[in-house]
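In response to the reviewer comment on reproducibility (Comment 2.3), we provide here a single inverse folding case reported in full, input and output, so that an independent group could reproduce the run without further information from us. The structure tokens appear first.
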């Protein structure tokens, strides 16, 4: 969502760093560029004014005097003020002293309330809570059925009755207490636009169940209208926080930068995909860093620790450095990496990667990764262990089975051999270039020994590229990382 804004900010801040001096004129030029970038991203005009004034006050004040690199200091100021605009501190949901903790979701129709309710229930469940969902949306056809389907997928019970929304809410809260559920989440009805009927219904439910947290589910693709919607709901319900949905969309992102400052409610969660696991706690400092093109290492580490098994990762790394890394291992690494989300989003969490990724988004297309998996899956177990077995007839069979060309198989096998040879050389050298190979230890886990790879003795300088994307004659390709051991 923030790709356009990130690209603009990267250029602005790069020019700021390159300047040896930043006087009043240079600062005003910088602020003018930032203003245009924010307005193009559909950020609310009042928020733009507040943001620029804060930066101007700090940049023209005593903060820049005496610093050796004023450009770097301005970058620091922009990062801190952007973090403040987004909320400053990460919001932490508290729990009621007497269960259940009541969470009320409100929002317009189409904002994703029902799916968000299930995502939120899954999030609570992953943290050791016992949530229950209540379907109080009796307006939209099949809303309760959708919630029941989602609840079944995540193993969370769903309560509803064909009466009226307030009665359902009251009965649902009582049922949660009876079952010993410590969190109860209410999915309420929405409308295509804010109207009195919608507000009265949601307000009646709120008065009946006395929620501990009232969360507005807000479509981040609405632009500046999102601010008007949030203001209308906040005036009636006194919102505690906002959940932004569709952050994986192609809108300009102005809602995320405007809601907190205009409405005064923090952003608690952000939905970044359609999967039920695609709900993340919103960290203003991390989001600010990503918007400025500085990556998001903390979130990347959390995703790696959640996705990767420590023992398996260390075992894979050891096999790679010993030259025993197979195409089965490589395929497993790809599958683990894909569990972390779309590859282009994962790679852009690495600091400085967003600039390098500007021209290779097409290479990160998931369909091309599928093609690589298809090639490996079309091989026999013996061929995955020792690609040297693949001759002309085998190559034709693999190409036919994966829907690719024999040249793609050749490229994959050649690059894999070179990568394995290079990693084995790296694993066999300790400090001072002396061998540090393990002695007296056979293959781990009873794996058969792997034949020494043949082919070019030229050490590989790149990782494994997708077939058809890594040929130097065709331009830069997409390189996939090897195993990521968790330290």
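Designed residues, in position order:
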């Amino acid at each position: 969502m923030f790709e356009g804004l990130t690209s603009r900010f990267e250029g602005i801040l790069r020019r700021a760093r390159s300047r040896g001096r930043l006087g009043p004129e240079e600062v005003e030029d910088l602020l003018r560029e930032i203003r245009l970038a924010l307005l193009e991203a559909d950020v609310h005009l009042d928020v733009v004014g507040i943001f620029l004034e804060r930066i101007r006050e700090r940049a023209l004040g005593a903060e820049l005097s005496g610093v050796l690199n004023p450009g770097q200091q301005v970058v620091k100021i922009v990062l801190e003020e952007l973090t403040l605009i987004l909320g400053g501190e990460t919001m932490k949901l508290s729990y009621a002293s007497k269960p259940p903790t009541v969470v009320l979701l409100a929002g317009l129709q189409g904002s994703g309330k029902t799916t968000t309710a299930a995502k939120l229930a899954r999030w609570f469940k992953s943290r050791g809570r016992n949530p229950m969902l209540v379907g109080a949306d009796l307006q939209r056809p099949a809303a309760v059925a959708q919630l029941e389907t989602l609840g079944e997928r995540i193993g969370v019970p769903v309560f509803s009755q064909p009466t009226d929304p307030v009665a359902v809410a009251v009965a649902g809260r009582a049922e949660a207490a009876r079952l010993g559920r410590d969190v109860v989440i209410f999915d309420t009805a929405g409308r295509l636009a804010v109207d009195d009927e919608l507000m009265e219904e949601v307000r009646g439910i709120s008065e009946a169940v006395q929620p501990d947290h009232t969360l507005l589910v807000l479509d981040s693709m609405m632009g500046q209208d999102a601010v008007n919607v949030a203001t209308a709901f906040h005036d009636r319900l006194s919102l505690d926080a906002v959940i932004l949905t569709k952050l994986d969309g192609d809108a300009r992102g102005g809602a995320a930068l405007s809601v907190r400052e205009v409405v005064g409610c923090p952003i608690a969660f952000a939905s970044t995909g359609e999967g039920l696991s695609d709900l993340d706690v919103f960290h203003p400092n991390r989001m600010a860093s990503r918007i400025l093109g500085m990556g998001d290492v903390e979130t990347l580490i959390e995703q790696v620790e959640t996705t990767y098994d420590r023992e398996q990762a260390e075992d894979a790394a050891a096999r790679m450095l010993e030259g025993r890394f197979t195409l089965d291992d490589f395929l497993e690494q790809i599958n683990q990496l894909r569990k972390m989300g779309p590859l282009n989003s994962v790679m852009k969490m690495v600091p400085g990667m967003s600039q390098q990724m500007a021209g290779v988004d097409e290479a990160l297309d998931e369909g091309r990764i599928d093609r690589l998996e298809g090639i490996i899956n079309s091989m026999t177990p013996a061929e995955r262990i020792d690609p040297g077995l693949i001759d002309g007839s085998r190559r034709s069979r693999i190409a036919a089975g994966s829907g690719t060309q024999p040249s793609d198989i050749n490229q994959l096998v050649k690059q894999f051999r070179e990568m394995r040879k290079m990693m084995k050389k790296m694993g066999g050298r300790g400090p001072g270039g002396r061998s540090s190979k393990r002695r007296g230890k056979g293959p781990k886990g009873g794996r058969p020994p792997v034949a020494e790879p043949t082919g070019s003795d030229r050490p590989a300088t790149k990782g494994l590229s997708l077939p058809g994307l890594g040929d130097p004659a065709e331009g830069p390709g997409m390189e996939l990382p090897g195993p990521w051991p968790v330290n």
